[in-house]
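Quick one: examine the sequence and fold tokens given here and explain what the tokens say about the fold. Here goes:
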Amino acid sequence: MSSPMTEIQAHLQRPMRADARRNYEKLVASAREVFTEEGSAASLEGVAERAGVGIGTLYRHFPTRQALLEAVYADEVDAIARSARELSDQEPWDALVEWVHRYVGFAATKRALMDALLETAPDSDVLMICRTALREAGDELIGRGQQAGVVRRDVDFVDVGRMVSQIAVAPHADADQKERMLQILLDGLRARPA
């Protein structure tokens, strides 16, 4: 059975020569930087310039802004989902806490990208696959904690992901307040003795 992220890669990428693959990767990395700095409406010419390629190369890989936004978002989802798997050797609670902290950073920086994608293509296959990948990664960590008896049994990633996302983008909250809110959330996730 293929993973959701394998499906994303198949959906977004076709076989490429090595030089084309390098250009694709440079464009995605540059778009991530430009969109983080300037927002998802940033100039595509600026993305191409930062990647060190011509605008024609950008359009050969990404014929629309939507395609570029999807590629950047999918790449970020792949990284956060992969990081959940990389924590599998840690104790279940420690792995969940570390991943939730990583997820705060992901949610804070990717909110604008996701909002732009939802606005232009709410039924995008890429968005659906990304949601599945995030849910599976989070549910795996939460499930490990539940099996170990350290995470309450009545939660899943949808609950946790929504709360963490709201903490990540809380207006007027500084880093210390966000950390306190996250600690309150984590305390609420702990299993309690019967």
The first helix runs from residue 4 to 12.
